[in-house]
Amino acid sequence: MAMADIRGTLPAPARIAAGGPTTLRAGFIPLVDASILIAAAEFGFAQREGLTLDLVRDVSWANVRDRLAFRQFDIAHMLSPMPVASMLGLGSNPSPTITPFSLGRGGNAITLSARLFARMQEATGLSETASALDNARALATLLGVMREAGELPPTFGMTYPFSSHNYEFRYWLAAGGIDPDRDVKMVVVPPPLTSDALAAGAIDGFCVGAPWNMVASERGVGRIVAAKQDIWPSAPEKVIGLRPDWAQSHPDTVSRLIVALDAAARWCDRPENHDALAEILADSRYINAPVHIIRHVLSGEFSLDARGNRRVIDKYFVFHEGHANYPRPSKALWIYSQMIRWGQAGFSDAGARAAASAYRPDLYRAALPSSAMPQDEDVRIEGLSETDRFMDGFVFDPAHLKAYAEAFPVRSRLAQDRGVEDV
């Protein structure tokens, strides 16, 4: 069904707020994980709730953060750690930010340059079908060879210091025995520039959201070595960020926004809608990438490199299923544990409370029926199930957050020095 036909089948608006539609200016970065926000604007879900979403494409997460803080945006597509960092007072402009809605799970991958991957194979005999952990260990072996030869360490790109990409890249490296702060160099690269930076030799690898990993692999400049599902399948990815004072002043608007996003998330999850979704995402106003790549990403069909090696990841993107939109505070606390692990923050009880306060299930619960809610606790042990394990076998118990952060054999020397301190 063509996109115009789908729009034509949408029901009339269910209700319009008194005084007419409310316009919300929303910042976003051109990534597939902005799908729910884009679908809500393009396919009538916001309109049905009396909302108009004015979507503004931005170039960096720092810009999005600042424009939300300075009230140029009402809401924003944000990295899941950004509200946590803001509530901890971290970063250059830590304006308080909360999230009542997660934009789903999945979408990230780690890509190394084709040249670096070929050297890993030469040094270790690494197979084309090696696991994410085997790839990390092979890189560790190669780094040892490079050090002995007096070579400079590779440079790896991620999108923002307080990002799932940074923490997942570090988690993958450390699981292979690599110290991200000493054995490699980590730099910030905006998502749309990663493929070009890899092709130019400015970086040797990156962790970023779709579709930019597959863009690099199809160009023949990169090899995908790990996906988000390999590291921790339910790791929080992107969220909707709001200023807490704005949310408090506009409770009805927040509820209507959550209802619209919930409907859009359900629609995005259905495979029969992926052709229409890919078509609109490929538009120059949004991601501006080949529609066939976006369609493959939505299906979890990966071209790992330009030599025909492929992989299919079931549910690579989950937009709604399994309570993927629920802003669970234990996930915010896991993010805080990684900030502690890598020396960005110290542990304190006040810090744990501040981190948990960034994720607001109360706002989600107020907007949607109780039948849509998860039945377990908001703060739970993470990584217990067979389908949701961390790649190194660790389990995260928020009740023992400090001990968890200190138990990793690879962690920041700064974290080891600072120990417990107020945040």
Task: Give short descriptive properties of this protein.
alpha/beta, D-Maltodextrin-Binding Protein, domain 2, 2 domains, 14 strands, disordered N terminus
Describe the structure.
- This is ABC transporter substrate-binding protein.
- Pfam families: NMT1_2.
- It is found in: Endomembrane system.
- Keywords: Cell inner membrane, Cell membrane, Membrane, Transport.
- It comes from Rhizobium straminoryzae.
- The structure is a single chain.
- With 423 residues, this protein is of the alpha/beta class.
- Helix 9 (194-200) runs parallel beside helix 10 (212-219).
- The model is unreliable at 1-20 (pLDDT under 50).
- The strands form 4 sheets. Strands 2-1-3-11-4 form a 5-stranded mixed beta sheet, with helices on both faces.
- The termini are far apart.
- The chain has helices at 3-8, 35-42, 45-48, 61-69, 81-87, 114-124, 132-148, 164-175, 194-200, 212-219, 228-231, 244-249, 251-269, 274-281, 291-299, 329-341, 349-357, 361-367, 401-407, 413-418; strands spanning 22-28, 51-57, 75-79, 98-102, 105-106, 108-113, 155-158, 185-188, 205-209, 222-227, 238-242, 301-303, 310-312, 317-318.
- It has 2 domains: 3-107 and 235-285 and 320-407, D-Maltodextrin-Binding Protein, domain 2 (3-Layer(aba) Sandwich); 109-231, Periplasmic binding protein-like II (D-Maltodextrin-Binding Protein, domain 2, 3-Layer(aba) Sandwich), CATH 3.40.190.
- It has 20 helices and 14 strands.
